[in-house]
Design brief:
Elements (H helix, E strand, L loop, with lengths): L5 E2 L14 E4 L1 E2 L7 E7 L8 E6 L6 E4 L11 E4 L4 E7 L8 E6 L5 E5 L11 E5 L3 E7 L8 E6 L5 E6 L5 E7 L5 E7 L8 E7 L2 E10 L2 E9 L5 E7 L8 E6 L4 E5 L11 E5 L4 E8 L8 E6 L3 E6 L6 E8 L5 E7 L8 E6 L5 E6 L7 H5 L3 E4 L6 E6 L6 E7 L5 E6 L3 E5 L6 E9 L4 E9 L1
Antiparallel strand pairs: 1-3, 2-30, 4-5, 5-6, 6-7, 8-9, 9-10, 10-11, 12-13, 13-14, 14-15, 16-17, 17-18, 18-19, 20-21, 21-22, 22-23, 24-25, 25-26, 26-27, 28-29, 29-30, 31-32, 32-35, 33-34, 33-36, 36-37
């Protein structure tokens, strides 16, 4: 199969309130991803750069990964498997050997959950069966029982089940049923609903139409459904993110009729506030919702997709104050999945998305840094040591910088995990972080980002 990369020059985008920060670069990889199912970003080959894993049902390319070269281009596809009818995928270190393995749900009479072992260099084993589930269309990896092993949570559309597989770290998995009469079980997400330190499971179903959560009591015991909302909603997707940064993950849900993204704010005690509408009737949202600093002001905005358009919701001074919805591109078709990563190695987060109609991968480049003087003002004045590091990073800012207002570290999802006020020398501890890439931002007293860099946690 012929594989090629086509780069088209930046296209002009709709003008919005702040300076232009995103330009579209169309990256056509292959026509092999028709009927695409999922897209994930993970460091597959251990080089410290996030790569892409794609699942689709097109012949000869069911499950592949692409190495991100780091300059806005990808390698040819690396085949993981060419069969199995994948419905969903997730990526994580399933065998605790320090690299990213791949788990998929297989449908269409196969009806299994399988995993592929990574040798650390991006070479994968043949599929290994985790367990049988009828039409396992939603897969997620999470620590469900407090041990050191990633477990697998699965939603079944055919058997009306939601189950999880307990990983014993001996290539053995125990299937545990959470609910077996969960009709039209559309999706789930792992989330600590009640702030007790373990992960519960939030779900959406359409027969009847219900948003609910199942409590994790510990000792491998996850049950007891609590209904959050049983209004007449038709839903297709659920995400968890701490929208207002109060320490509790909230729920963002894709609602179909009318087409809306709705938000349930988590009170942190097992209850949620009534839903509020984030977007309404913008050509049909597909449910992609990425936290990302879209305007370079140091706080998290939100990238969303519609049927033929892309938008972002502006954070106008605090995450409880989401404001204007901006359209910035109507150049592309339906985006099924999207991930945020530094696609071109310029120390900011870009957006790569999967076009489910054409089977292409496309990206939007974040040009906030290159369109300003931020890095030039700070060349040679910030030192980070050691980097990479296991235990922490020492940040030293040279000179008398009275304009420093705030120092932050964000994870790859855009969530702030460390924050300190004005200091020119600071120690950032990282011993409790997961291995991977993080982003250092230094803000001035006006709240604008004046320096960015990457931190690598070993």
């Amino acid at each position: 199969m012929k594989t090629f990369i086509l780069l088209i020059p930046f296209v002009a985008l709709t003008t919005f309130m702040h300076a232009q920060i995103i330009a579209g670069t169309h990256v056509e990889l292959t026509d092999a991803h028709n009927d695409a199912k999922d897209l994930k970003a993970a460091d597959i080959d251990g080089d410290g750069i996030l790569d892409l894993v794609v699942a689709s049902k097109e012949a000869n390319s069911h499950l592949v990964w692409y190495k991100v070269i780091g300059n806005g281009t990808l390698s040819p596809p690396n085949i993981i498997d060419t069969g199995g009818h994948p419905l969903d995928l997730d990526v994580g270190d399933l065998d605790n050997d320090g690299d990213m393995d791949v788990v998929i749900g297989q449908g269409f009479t196969i009806d299994k959950v399988v995993w592929y072992e990574n040798d650390g260099n991006g070479n994968f084993s043949s599929s290994q069966t985790i367990g049988t589930v009828s039409y396992p269309h939603a897969i997620s990896l999470a620590h469900m029982n407090g041990d050191d092993d990633l477990d697998i949570v699965v939603s079944s559309l055919s058997d009306d089940e939601i189950v999880w597989f307990d990983n014993t770290n001996a290539f053995l998995f125990t299937k545990r049923v959470i609910e077996d009469e969960f009709h039209d079980n559309m999706a789930h997400v792992t989330i600590d609903v009640d702030n007790d330190g373990d992960l519960d499971i939030a779900t959406i179903t359409n027969t009847p139409s219900t948003v609910s959560w199942f409590k994790n009591f510990g000792n491998d015991n996850i049950n007891t459904e609590t209904v959050i909302d049983d209004n007449d909603l038709t839903m297709t997707r659920i995400l968890a993110h701490d929208v207002n940064e109060d320490g509790y993950d909230d729920l963002i849900i894709k609602k179909n009729t009318p087409s809306e993204l709705i938000l349930y704010r988590n009170n942190g005690n097992g209850s949620f506030q009534d839903y509020e509408i984030l977007t309404s009737d913008i050509n049909g949202t597909t449910g992609i919702f990425l936290p990302l600093d879209m305007d370079g002001d140091g706080d998290l905005d939100f990238f969303i997709s519609a049927v033929i358009d892309f938008y972002w919701i502006e954070n106008v001074g605090g995450t409880d104050n989401l404001g204007t919805i901006h359209e910035f591109s109507d150049a592309f078709s339906v985006a099924l999945e999207a991930v945020a990563l530094d696609f071109d190695s310029d120390n900011d987060l870009d957006i790569v998305y999967m076009n489910t109609n054409s089977g292409e991968l496309n990206w939007f480049e974040n040009i906030a840094m290159s369109s300003s003087n931020e890095n030039h003002l700070w060349d040679g004045q910030v030192s980070i040591s050691p980097n990479p590091s296991q235990d922490g990073f020492d940040i030293e800012i040279q000179g008398n910088r009275s304009d420093i207002g705030n120092i932050r570290v964000l994870d790859i999802s855009g969530k702030t995990i460390f924050e300190a006020n004005s200091e020119t020398n600071i120690r950032i501890p990282s011993e409790n972080w997961s291995s991977g890439i993080y982003y250092l931002s230094i803000l001035n007293t006006d709240g604008m980002v004046i320096y960015r860099d990457k931190l690598m946690k070993l």
